[in-house]
Each structure stands twice: as C-alpha cells, then as structure tokens.
Amino acid sequence: MMAGRSTDSIDPPAGTQALLFDCDGTLVDTMGLYRICWRQVFGRHGFEMTDEWFATWAGHSMRPFGGAALPDADEGFIEAVSAEGVDLFLESTHLLEPLEHVVAIAREYHGRIPMAVVSGGPRSAVVASLDAVGITELFDAIVTVSDVAHGKPAPDVYRKAIADLGVHAEKCVAYEDTASGFESARSAGIPIVFDVR
Fold first, then answer.
1. Which CATH superfamily is domain 2-30+96-195 in?
2. Which of 25, 44, 118, 124 stands the most exposed, by the fewest C-beta atoms within 10 Å?
3. Residue 154 near residue 175, CB atoms below 8 Å
4. For 5-53, what is each residue's pLDDT tens digit?
C-alpha cells in the first residue's frame, strides 16, 4: 500500500506538516482519458500504443513519455506531439471524475495543514483536471513539470512543493499511484508515500 508504514489506512500520522498529492490517477481519474488521447495521437505518428506500454510509462513527465514512444524523434518534434496530446485531453476534461477516497483526505485536512498538488503533467492539463472536478481551491500550491527542470521520476517537483510550502520533507506525506511518482517523492526525502491505487 505504501512505503515507510505498514497499514492500509491512508490517513496521515500525527505530526504531519504537509500533504502532497499527485494529480493524475491519484486525485483525478484521468488515466482512461489520457490512454484514449495518447493512443490517437501516437497512432497518427506511427506508434501503436498498447495498454501494457501505457501502464509502464504512465506517470512519467512528457519528455521521457514522448521519447519512449518516438525514440528517433528530435526534441522539437516530441514537444509538438506532446502539445497535440495535451490539447486533445483538454477538449475532454468535462468527462473527468474525482478519485473520492483520496479527495476525501484533501477535504478533511483542507485549512488544517498545508497541501499541494505535485504533478509530472503540464500545468494547463493539471489545473484543467482539478477545475473539472471542483477541487482546485483545496490546495495551497500546485507544482507541475512546467515549473521545474526535470519531471518525475526526478525529485524536482516534490522539492519545489516542499520549499513553496515552507515545510520539512521528513514531516510530509505523499500520495501517489505510479512507480515514477514513488521514486520522485522518496528521492525528495519524503518518508511516507501512500500507494493509492
């Protein structure tokens, strides 16, 4: 269920200074919509995306995700294809639903301790997803791959969120659903990372 504790509960322990939530697949059920969008976009460019491939690469930031699908493409082309996929996703965010078992934690602790969204996705897609399910206002900060040099699995997004909130990594709890997210949070020094899948 998580790293650092042996319980099925995803409630943070006493003394937690901040809660840090991934967005896609953690707060908002975006993965099905992303799968549809990326299958279409990659298909236009000659890559037939399988569910197995998507399961492996979901949660990575755009550069490694696009590069894995189109390994011979240059950086500019990957950026263009990434923008195409995000645009298609943005057209359909009205279809999204919250993942209530995690959102319930955010609602419970809203206003009690600082909270941030920490995502490997681009800011436009993350904010649109949060807005679509009506939870943007729960969070004190939103940190995305658009705000840092390196996305997940690098620790940059978590380190920035911790700095923005003015808290200590060892007193934070993270909520994640992918291997790259777990690695990102742990590399930033966060001792408790709940697996919310």
1. HAD superfamily/HAD-like (3.40.50.1000)
2. 44
3. no
4. 333 689 999 999 999 999 999 999 999 999 999 999 999 999 999 999 9
